[in-house]
Design brief:
about 240 residues, alpha/beta, globular
Length: about 240
């Protein structure tokens, strides 16, 4: 895997799509696909850490996913809890900083507590920042930031003229993290699905036909190679 070390994306975001279809191909329930998708998460995290990518953001559960069947949502919450229990210590040992981004208020108290403990454990780590987007939506993120800034203006903390793109970015859940350089979506679908709408303004998009449970380091490398072949002009000539 020979990459140009001077042209590595700082922030990679992945829409992990295809768990359900993968399970259907195996003649299994959808949750079987989600369980096997955890293996692909480990692979992606290992790849990002090994290749000095600064931030990896994974779309685990969107704000629209609550509309799925109750049994599937319940199973996903249980899987989320188990994944935190089994993976966080490994992340900590590997100097990875875990952040759960999204509206955590809808989760159970026990899950919220587990999230807080996991974030605190890894908060001082200086390696890869791993964002897990859970109950996240790009609309929610932008509206939440707008409300925060409006409140600061109302309280006299902030002047309207001080609201700049940089200041707005600080109010988003990704705060001072670099903007997304590369957005990957698996399973062949070519949609953004309300993911990091502000943060992907100038991201390169890579759509893989591979279903998420089968996504491995070679597939990740393919996306990096495609990224490094593109001419990023950011609206310029």
């Amino acid at each position: 895997m020979n990459f140009d070390p001077l042209n590595m994306p700082q922030h990679v975001a992945i829409i992990m799509d295809g768990n359900g279809r993968w399970a259907k191909q195996q003649g299994k329930l959808r949750i079987f696909g989600h369980q096997n998708g955890v293996k692909a998460v480990r692979s992606a995290v290992n790849f990002a850490a090994k290749h000095q990518i600064k931030v990896l953001t994974l779309y685990a559960f969107s704000s629209e996913n609550w509309n799925r069947p109750e049994a599937e949502v319940s199973a996903l919450m249980t899987l989320f809890m188990k994944a935190l229990d089994s993976e966080v210590k490994k992340l900590h040992q590997n100097n990875i900083c875990l952040k759960i981004i999204g509206d955590k208020s809808r989760f159970s108290e026990s899950l919220q507590k587990r999230i807080e403990q996991s974030e605190q454990l890894t908060s001082q780590n200086t390696g890869l920042i791993l964002n897990i987007a859970a109950n996240y939506g790009g609309y929610w993120d932008i509206v939440n930031a707008a409300k925060q800034l409006a409140t600061e203006v109302k309280q006299g903390i902030l002047e309207i003229e001080q609201i700049t793109p940089d200041r707005f970015q600080q109010a988003l859940v990704t705060e001072d993290q670099p903007q997304v350089d590369l957005l990957i979506r698996t399973s062949g679908e070519q949609r953004i699905s309300n993911f990091l709408l502000w943060q992907i303004a100038y991201a390169e998009l890579f759509f893989s036909s591979v279903l998420w449970p089968d996504f491995n380091e070679e597939h990740f490398a393919e996306a990096i190679r495609a990224y490094q072949q593109r001419d990023r002009r950011f609206g310029g000539c």
